[in-house]
Amino acid sequence: xxxxxxxxxxxxxxxxxxxxxxxxxxxxxxxxxxxxxxxxxxxxxxxxxxxxxxxxxxxxxxxxxxxxxxxxxxxxxxxxxxxxxxxxxxxxxxxxxxxxxxxxxxxxxxxxxxxxxxxxxxxxxxxxxxxxxxxxxxxxxxxxxxxxxxxxxxxxxxxxxxxxxxxxxxxxxxxxxxxxxxxxxxxxxxxxxxxxxxxxxxxxxxxxxxxxxxxxxxxxxxxxxxxxxxxxxxxxxxxxxxxxxxxxxxxxxxxxxxxxxxxxxxxxxxxxxxxxxxxxxxxxxxxxxxxxxxxxxxxxxxxxxxxxxxxxxxxxxxxxxxxxxxxxxxxxxxxxxxxxxxxxxx
Length: 346
Hints:
This is Type IV secretion system protein. Keywords: Membrane, Transmembrane, Transmembrane helix. It comes from Micrococcus endophyticus. The longest helix is centred in the last third of the chain and has 60 residues, at about 285-345. The model is unreliable at about 300-315 (pLDDT under 50). This protein has helices at about 1-25, 35-45, 65-90, 95-135, 140-150, 170-175, 185-220, 220-225, 235-265, 270-285, 285-345, and strands at about 45-50, 55-60, 155-160, 165. The protein folds into two domains: about 1-285, no CATH class; about 290-345. It is mostly helical.
């Protein structure tokens, strides 16, 4: 008798995990959108919080960007002062101009750049939704894409009854049916746990991406201020590459999820299940992957720039040596001509 009760408990656990996985993957991309509620933590504004008893309180948030800008003003002064000293020692007019422009425009430029981040996030969110909706024939493309991924796992969402149905034609869910042998339901439970974990990681990584974007936007001031000092300008390039990588991670992850609909034509249910898990894990890894790609590209560009500077320096030294050689040869020719004139005069 207890065996039947245990199996019913296991079936209920499998259905619960499947339903939770469906909810996680369905909300993974919407929760990663940059909404005004998230953005107020960067630029400041009023935050409404609900306390016990249903009462709400309004808090004026200063905005972390404003706080960091004020805190980093001494750093800007130091950068400008060092740049002025270096330019004076080198006699560089361009360096002096860099210091002047940075002193005047660094703070306004910080707010302009952060505003562009807000606009870019809005545009990429629309791009993400378009990727999920393309080819859906007017239906809700995001739901269709989610249904395609769930179909890889042998899961179907019944919207009428708000239930998740297990397709017993899939081997893993057949093990959870009433006709399965004793103990086989454990395999189905393990599969359900892995599916739930994969969908949980996808949502967690989309939130991780959003939080990193908010942190980078809040700390835009040090990156922009670093442009005042020529040796420190690489900080701005690193900040920009990280921001671009995180912004583009959302649409690329949506494209990976969209591939799930094409993978539904794979031959066996086990292949479909494993492919679905890999698909979700790859989509979840996009923020980390894009950070690595942009760091690699930025490093390559930096090396290319350094190589170009060294090549230009070598070319300059070669030209100077050539000019010295020509000048020396011309001097020797003048000396010989003078000697010949003197001998002819005698």
